[in-house]
């Protein structure tokens, strides 16, 4: 999982905002399989949204998709995704 900045040109486009870096655009959340980079979810969000915001619900959905299809599932993301209140549930 990863949150990033996707810059765009039009300041009047619905849903976009200015990031903490001063870039106009969106802050999509990408959840994918590490081995194949197959996208499980790509959530379009305003540019000023922190990486972890509302990510728990999308992580839960991704786990529902893959659990039972693989022997084990590991979640990978930067420290912004250390959502303490959810870690026990995901273990």
Describe this structure in words.
The protein has 91 residues and is an alpha+beta fold. The chain has one domain (2-90). Helix content is 21%, strand content 20%. The chain has two helices and six strands. It has helices at 55-66, 84-90; strands spanning 2-3, 6-7, 17-18, 24-26, 29-32, 39-43. Strand 3 and strand 4 form a beta hairpin.
Strand content: 15-25%
Number of helices: 2
**What strand line-up does the widest sheet have?**
1-5-6
Helix share, percent: 10-25%
Given helix and strand content, the structural type is alpha+beta
- Overall geometry comes to elongated
- State the distance separating the first and last CA atoms: 16 Å
Q: Mean pLDDT, rounded to whole units?
A: 80
- By DSSP, the count of extended strands is 6
Low-pLDDT parts are: none
Order of H and E elements: EEEEEEHH
**Radius of gyration (Å):** 14 Å
Number of domains: 1
The biggest sheet, with number of strands, parallel, antiparallel or mixed sense and barrel status, is:
3 strands, antiparallel
Q: Key features?
A:
alpha+beta; 91 residues; elongated; 3-stranded antiparallel beta sheet
Report a brief summary of the structure.
The radius of gyration is 14 Å and the shape is elongated. It has one domain. Helices cover 21% and strands 20% of the residues.
């Amino acid at each position: 999982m990863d949150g990033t900045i996707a810059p765009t040109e039009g300041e009047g486009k619905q849903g976009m905002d200015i990031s903490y870096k001063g870039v106009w655009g969106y802050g999509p959340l990408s959840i994918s399989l590490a081995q194949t980079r197959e996208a499980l979810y790509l959530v379009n969000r305003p540019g000023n949204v922190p990486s972890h915001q509302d990510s728990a619900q999308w992580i839960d959905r991704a786990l529902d998709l893959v659990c039972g299809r693989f022997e084990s599932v590991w979640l990978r993301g930067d420290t912004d995704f250390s959502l303490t209140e959810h870690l026990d549930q995901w273990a």
